[in-house]
Structure formats: structure tokens, C-alpha cells
Amino acid sequence: MPEGHSVHRITRQFERNFVGHVVHASSPQGRFAVGAAEIDGRRMTDARAVGKQMFLGFEGDVWLRVHLGMYGAWDFSGEILMDATIASANGRMGQTNQRGTFLDAPNPDAVVFDEAGENSLRSIGAPRKTRLRMAESEKEGNTLDTFPPEPIGQVRVRLLTDTICADLRGPTACEVLDPVRVEQTVAKLGPDPLLDPGPDAEERFTSVVRKKPTPIGLLLMDQNVVAGIGNVYRAELLFRARLNPHTPGRRVREELVRELWRDWARLLRIGVETGQMMTMDDLDAEAYRAAMASRDDRHWVYKREGLPCRVCGTNIVLEEMGARKLYWCPSCQA
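C-alpha cells predicted for DNA-(apurinic or apyrimidinic site) lyase:
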């Protein structure tokens, strides 16, 4: 499932390429024909992300809400203008040390693309293997023979300007809302540290967690508690905090809950800047490039079941929690 950093990157693409432009909307697969007709021909005025949900605003107080869910993704084609922050990513602003402060990447001029396309500027969302991908002519580094390109696969909605095209496939939710319903939807979500960087959001998160008997491993995935965290970030945050995922929220020390929030804010910012869920610390130049290129070298515990813990050597455990796979170290997180 695309996590919060991906959705923020998508909205930055829309801010740079669509906001201020008249947009033509269609539904090549037909499932969103009525909704597309409502926004067709309107100028895009805003693009916002809240956790895993995005909201595109159009003239006339009309909003398009998209939740990518497990398999959704946006594909961009045409003359893509890169956001300044995203353009400086792929190794240029990447890692943290154990205190959480930002460091320059070991090789700040290197652009390292992930082997799975996680940091692609052309396709953001679900992993490549889960759905039909772009045509060869659309892939990174190539040019289009014609514009706009023919839709590929089941495109729920296509947004088009004179220079750029955005195709949405496989979302869990795609609907047109008025401002009242947008506010109602956002009000149900937990805080997002990129939108709420101040103490009030930290206090809100801490207060909710400290009242709950629910295991912390479930609370971090509850979008009503905190917005944007998915399976990868859950596993990595808990390991970085050396916290047992089964610990009830109300039994987690207050300072540790606060540190979880601060660490999520750090990792989310790195994810937006680099396009990758980089959670490793203090890497030398060679290890950093390897981690940026491959998820296998980028995480402490995620997808490492049966492999020795990078810290203590105990085999990483895989279990199911909340109908999702949970990875953790039974020694470091005892």
C-alpha cells in the first residue's frame, strides 16, 4: 500500500504541474464518467495530502478526493516539471543519524534510482509488480511519440492539460466532494506531521495513544490516530524505538510516544525528499547508495523475516497483526 510520503509526493507533482491550469477530465474505463464530467474544464486551484488521502481542488469549490488503497497509483506523462524538493532528492538530502538530525548524503551529486521505481517521478503509488505499468515510451528517460498517450490498463480518471497527463488506476476511493464533505473527511483523520508540525499535533497523538488499551502496533496503523503510516513505516518505527508491537498504547512511556511522533515526522520528510522509505542510519557512501537502490538494504526489519537482526543477530519474526504482516525483532523489541 502506498504510504504517506508517496501521497505527499503526488500532491507536489500536481502543485507544480496542474495547479493554475484548466484541466480536462475523463474516465477511460467509464467507472468515473459522472465525476469526471463534474470537474472537466475547471481550473485546478489546490492540491493537498492528508496522510494517505489526497484532495485536488477545482474552481467552483469542487474537490476530487482520492485514496490509493492497496493498489492505486498515478502515472504522469508529458512535460513533467519537477518540484524543487523532489528534484533535489535521490541521494541529495537523504539520511538521518541516530539523533535524528539531517545529514548530507555521502555523495550529494549522485542520483540513485530505486530498482522497483519507488522514487520515480513518472509513476507514484503501488509497486510496479502489482499492476500494469507504463508503455516503454513513457518510462524514465524516454520521450513520448504522441501526446497524450493512449490509456493503458483500467484508468479510472485521466487529468489532462496542454502539456501533461495524469492517469489514476486502482484506487480504493475516487469521488467528487464539496468543501463541507472534505472537511468532514479530514476531521476524522489523525494528525499528519507535514501539515501539523507544531506541538498541538504531537500532543493530540500522545494523548490518544496513552489512553488506548490497543497494541501500539495497531494504533500506528489506525489513520484516526495518526495519518500516513503504513506497514513499512510501522515496522521500522517500532524497531527504531525498540518497542514491542504488542504493548498496549497506555503502557508506553509518554516520552517514548512523543519520540515515535518525532521520528515519524523525520522519516516522512526523508520519504518525501527522496521518494524512498529510507529508515537506516549512519550509512557510509557505499552502503547509502546500495540502500537507495534496493529496499533489501534500506530497512531494519521490514521484509526480513527469518534473517538475522542487523543489531543483535536474532531472526526477525513475521506474524499477522490487524490483517497485515508485521515484522519485528523479538530480542531488540522484547
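The first helix runs from residue 4 to 17.
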